[in-house]
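Exercise 7. Given the encoded structure of a 173-residue chain, write a plausible sequence.
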């Protein structure tokens, strides 16, 4: 009798015992063969640095937002008032993130945009602070940028609520 058929008969045995004991859900869980993604495993990004390297490369306020998911104090970023034409880039790796043409005044005290540049960002589910929010990070270095909400203006209806400390502004030449 081969390994797999041994496993199969063991599963059947467990299933019979489990059903008898009313433990069918437990048996189903034990029998699950698909690998479960480790949610805590770090994602791989094109730009990776050690924590020591990030600390050395970034200002404390940038580090706290980009690497520790802090949120800057509302109305604290000079980028709130940045009205020139240009591009907002990642303060961690220089990746272009948002065009000034998608920036708008949301009244929240954080630089807000209704769309990112193509392939500039990634998102993840953020369950901190008893909320379910969509976290936004740089697609290149994984640095935390802010969150995206569905109460933005047309044409997307999205509000990309960014930390100014996570970005730098590069005016058009
Ligand atoms: Zn970046």
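Solution.
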């Amino acid at each position: 009798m081969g390994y797999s058929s041994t496993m199969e008969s063991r599963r059947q045995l467990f299933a019979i015992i489990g059903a008898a004991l009313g433990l069918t859900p437990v048996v189903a869980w034990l029998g699950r063969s698909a690998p479960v993604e480790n949610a805590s495993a770090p994602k791989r990004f094109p730009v990776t640095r050690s924590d020591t390297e990030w600390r050395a490369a970034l200002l404390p306020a940038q580090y706290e937002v980009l690497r520790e998911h802090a949120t800057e104090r509302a109305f604290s970023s000079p980028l709130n008032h940045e009205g020139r034409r240009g591009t907002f880039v990642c303060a961690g790796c220089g990746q272009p993130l948002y065009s000034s043409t998608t920036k708008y005044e949301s009244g929240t005290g954080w630089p807000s945009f209704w769309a990112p540049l193509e392939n500039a960002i990634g998102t993840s589910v953020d369950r901190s602070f008893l909320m379910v929010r969509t976290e936004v990070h740089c697609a290149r270095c994984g640095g935390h940028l802010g969150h995206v909400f569905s109460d933005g203006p047309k044409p997307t209806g999205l509000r990309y609520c960014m930390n100014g400390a996570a970005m730098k502004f590069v005016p058009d030449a």
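Remark. The chain has four helices and nine strands. Students should compare their own answers with the one above.
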